Each structure stands twice: as C-alpha cells, then as structure tokens.
Amino acid sequence: MKTFDHVVVGSGIAGLTYALKAAEKGSVAIVTKKSRADSNTAWAQGGIACVTSNEDSIALHVRDTMVAGDGLCDEEVVRQIVTDGPQRIAELISLGMQFDERTTPEGGKEPDLGREGGHSKRRILHAKDTTGFEIEKTLLAAVATHPGITVMENHMAVDLITTGKLGYAMQDSCVGLYVLDEASGEVDTLRTDVTVLATGGCGKVYLYTTNPDIATGDGVAMAWRAGAVVANMEFMQFHPTCLFHPKAKSFLITEAVRGEGGILLDSRGRRFMEKYDARRELAPRDVVARAIDAEMKRTGKPCVYLDISHQSTDFIRDRFPTIYETCFNLGIDITKQPIPVVPAAHYQCGGVKTDINGETTLRGLYAVGEAACTGLHGANRLASNSLLEALVVAHRAETKSNRNHLRQGIEIVLPEWRPGRVQDLDELVVIYHNWDEIRRLMWDYVGIVRTDKRLQRAAHRLRNLQTEIQEFYWNFKITADLLELRNLATTAALIVDCAISRKESRGLHYTLDYPDHDDVKFLHNTLLRRL
Ligand SMILES: Cc1cc2nc3c(=O)[nH]c(=O)nc-3n(C[C@H](O)[C@H](O)[C@H](O)COP(=O)(O)OP(=O)(O)OC[C@H]3O[C@@H](n4cnc5c(N)ncnc54)[C@H](O)[C@@H]3O)c2cc1C
Asked: Quick one: pLDDT band at residue 425, thresholds 50, 70, 90?
C-alpha cells in the first residue's frame, strides 16, 4: 500500500492544476492511464473564455453562460467561476503560458481575443488553434520540476475504496483507490484522504466523437459505483463541425472558424442556418448541430460544408494553422474550398455532482474539470467555458481539500486487491464487439434527436451488455480494455437513464416526444445515485 496526501486521477488541465497547488503543502500522486499528455486538454483548439477586455464585463459573460445553459445553470456558480477567471489566467501566464496578442492602435500589446458562438463579445484567449496543447505543455513543464509530485503514467484507476465498502460504521468516505499498472498487470493500492477525479469526459461512448481515446467516462463510472451522486448526463454536447473524411479520426474544426466568419453550406452550396436561427452560424452549438443533422437528413447527404475561403489566405493560415495543415494534407485547401463537416459527440455537461469547490457527495472525493457537474453549464455549455471551469474549480478544490483534510482518527489499512478467479482474457473479440455495439447504439438511439422508444431500446440493450461485461469483470484478469468497456457501459446507462427521466426538450436534450420545455416539472437537475 502506498500513501499520499492527495491522489489525482488524470493529467489534463484540471488534474495538473490541482496537483501543482496541492504539492505546495503535501505529497501528491498523479495517476494517468496513458502518457501524461494524453488528454482532451491537449486537443482543445479554440481557447479559454475569460473577461479581460474593457469592452466586456463579468455580467455579460454570466448572462451569455446562463442563456446557453437554458434555465439550468446555477447562477452563483456561474458568477463565481467567471469572476475568478482573470486571476487563474494570470497564474497560468505566470507559469509561462503565452496567449496570442495583437498590437493596439497606440502601439502597445493586448490579448488577441477570439469570438465564438453564443458569446456576445470577443473574449476567447487563445494560442493560434492549439491552445489546449500549449496549456498542457506549460502545466506539464511545471509539474516536471516539482519534487512533491509523483506521476504514475500508464496506471489506470480501477475503483475507489470507501469506508462503507470496508464495513466501517463512520460516515462513508473515500479513503483510496485501486490502480492497474498497465505494464505489469498488477493492481496497486493507494491510500489517501483526498482523491480527485480529473478524468475528463466520455465522448467515446458515441460512435462519432471529437474526443481522444482516453475519454471513456471512467471518473463518472467510478464515482457512481462508490455511491456519489451523478447529475445531468443527458446533456451531451455534439460539436457541429467535425471533419468528415475517411482518413480523419476525430478531427475537430473549431467553433472559432464560424466566429471568424465561416458559413455553413448544404451540398448544393446554399447557406441554410437562417432557416433555423436568427444568429445563423453564431447560434449556440446545439442549435447548429441540430440544424446540420436536419439538413443531412433532409438532403440524404453524409455531410454539410463549412466555408471560410472568403477570408484572406494569410489570415486563415495564421489563425488556423493546424486546421489548414491537416485539411491540406487530406487534399482540402480551406483557403479555396469548403470543408466537409459532420456533428460528433464532444463535451459531457453532466458528471459527478459537485459544489463550486469540487466537493462531491462522498466525503474525501473531489471531482474537477469535465468529469464534474458544478452547475456552470446547465443544459448546455457555452463554448470555451470548460477550460475556464477546470482552472477555477481545481484551484478552489485544492483550497477546500486542504482545509478539510480528513484525518479520521483511526489508521485505516486498505485490503490488497483480490483478483478473483484469474484467467487470461482469451475472448478479446467479445470486448471489441461490445465496445462497438455500445458506441453504435448510443449514436443511433441516444444521439442529437431522441425519442422514448429509442431510449427504451437503448436501455434494454445496455442492461444485457452490462450483465455480460460484469461476468467478464469477475471471471477474467482485468485489462485496461476491459475496465474501459465496463466504464463505457456504465456511463452509457447513466446517460440513457437521465435522458429517460427528462420528459421535455431542453438545451442539449432534444426529444421528438416532448419537443418543448416543461418548466413546471423539469426546471431542475437530473440526479442519480446508486442505491
Ligand atoms: C477536440 C476538442 C477541442 C476542444 N476545444 C475546447 C476549447 O477550445 N475550449 C474549451 O474550453 N474546451 C475545449 N474542449 C473541451 C476541453 O478540452 C475539455 O473539457 C478539458 O480539456 C477537460 O479537461 P480535464 O482536465 O477535465 O480532462 P482531460 O484533459 O480530458 O484529462 C483527463 C485525464 O484523465 C486521465 N484518465 C481518464 N480516466 C482515467 C483512469 N481511469 N485512470 C487514470 N487516468 C485516467 C486521462 O488519461 C487524462 O490524462 C475541447 C475538447 C476537444 C476534444
């Protein structure tokens, strides 16, 4: 058994930010299931929303966030996160992060703020179109020089250990976790009073996603199994514009392309957004994704097109170098021709229910970043608010966890992992088949447009799949693939259950059976807890 003051699961912006701060006061382990830079964070393109200009205000950012959240944002949480933003950004800059700047008419420098859908002002700090990569690099460099942080790469958190599970009578608390060392196949036991889930989202639950392979909902699934409350999983954001090309896996075309004047066209080159929303291409993501979905269904074509070619070549190549390069290598010159795009699962607005300080309903367990549901996003996330939320809440969680530091008064010795009936997993094909089946059924039945019947069909299939996967889990030697499959199935089931219980359309949850809001019955979060 290894003991740390804090164990952070995940090495994206949320986990790294928390770890850097916590390491000033105690020992920290970062457990991360692939290499340390493997994260959604490293893929973020557009940037971070933050009020830094005199033409903008906290009130406007709060208002834009609340409008996008469609009635379900927690206003206090929104205001606090938006207000804390500038200070956290300043800290990031002091660590070496460089956001793009431009020259003012007076010859000085100011942030070159981008604009994205749903924002009434230019307020997106960015580093070209590789903002997340630069942030990840900056934070990892700081972590590398910190002696108080142990980074455990290729270590996958399996499950949380709680006093309840161990049979103690005290208030249920998280007291550690089991971690699979992917190289040796052994399971380590980590003892800690503060466990922080910073495991990111669950885009891989869907067949088409902008997310990297790590996004399998592990944190939400582990928290659920441990008895923490999970909220609002029905609100999955589909990014409207993922590159449609047989050789491009999960390549996102950032919202900023529309923010900089990109227009959406159908297969015959006709603009169509005005049919759906007065804000046209700058409407929030859910509106644009549904409009594209409707156009694809109407025309029977596999994609629509995003055209930025009316901007100058220099501007496009300078503002969107990665998108330009990637498309060019696939034979699409975006300075001259439109980009074929489709919607894809992008961001999990729900997650482990927390307060503004990342505290979950289970003592000793914190959740930060995309894995958490703080109340900032409500029923729909405003673009570029997620990196901001991760930064702010990670900071607050660290402050809170240090104040709360849990010493229980008794020394708890955690039992070693018991592997059960160990056999080699000789039926890998079942894992891959189930993995595919879940992702496809979620795409077909629990996607952008839902119905009761489709949700019921998904629930039925998921019940059977979960039974089969549980059997594997108990009978075979665990592997990272099997653990991810188990988490994927749990997360999919949580999404379906939340979606079934919301009998209205709101934000990202759209169902043909209840196409309108029902404020009387559903103006509240969807909360699920394992009994
Ligand atoms: C293509 C793309 C573009 C985006 N663009 C923007 C943008 O412009 N602005 C914005 O605000 N947001 C953007 N987002 C969303 C944003 O990137 C994420 O919400 C944010 O990075 C999440 O950070 P995180 O620290 O919570 O999780 P992540 O960065 O996803 O990190 C999760 C970490 O947890 C680890 N992990 C997961 N499960 C386990 C386990 N069981 N055991 C051990 N480790 C585990 C992973 O390996 C990873 O290190 C974008 C997302 C994508 C995919």
From this structure: low
Catalytically active residues are: 285
Helix H, strand E, coil C: the string for 153-200 is CCEEEEEEEEHHHHCCCCCCEEEEEEEEECCCCCEEEEECCEEEECCC
d(CA 479, CA 50): 41
- Give the mean model confidence (pLDDT) for residues 363-391: 97
Neighbours of 419 (CB within 10 A): 13
For 342-357, how does the pLDDT look when each residue is reduced to its tens digit (9 = 90+)? 999 999 999 999 999 9
Distance 300 CA to ligand 1 centre (A): 33
Sign of torsion, CA 178 182 184 185? Answer: positive
Q: How far apart are CA 502 and CA 518, in angstroms?
A: 9
How many other C-beta atoms are found inside a 10 Å radius of the C-beta of residue 445?
Answer: 21
* CA 40 to ligand 1 centroid distance, Å: 3
Pocket of ligand 1 (CB under 6 A): 9-15, 31-34, 38-41, 43-48, 131-132, 156-157, 198-200, 210-211, 214, 218, 252, 347, 369-371, 384, 386-387, 390
Q: Residue whose CA is closest, atom 31 of ligand 1?
A: 12
Give the N- to C-terminal CA distance of the chain in Å, as an integer.
29
The DSSP 8-state label assigned to residue 121 in this structure reads: S
Could you count the other beta carbons within 10 Å of the beta carbon of residue 34? 17
Tell me which residue has tokens 């399971």.
187
Q: How far does residue 107's CA lie from ligand 1's centre (Å)?
A: 37
Q: How many Cβ atoms sit within 10 Å of the Cβ of residue 427?
A: 11
For ligand 1, what atom is nearest to the CA of residue 384?
11
Do the beta carbons of residue 412 and residue 163 sit within 8 Å? yes
HSE value, Cβ hemisphere, 13 Å, CA-based, for 152: 24
Q: Give the separation between CA 254 and CA 116, rounded to whole angstroms.
A: 9
pLDDT, residue 77, reads 98
409 pLDDT band (50/70/90 cuts)?
low
DSSP SS3 for 310 = coil
pLDDT tens, position by position, 449-461: 999 999 999 999 9
Q: Do residues 284 and 382 lie in contact, with contact meaning Cβ atoms separated by under 8 Å?
A: yes
Average pLDDT of 360-370? Answer: 97
> Cα–chain-centroid distance for residue 144?
24
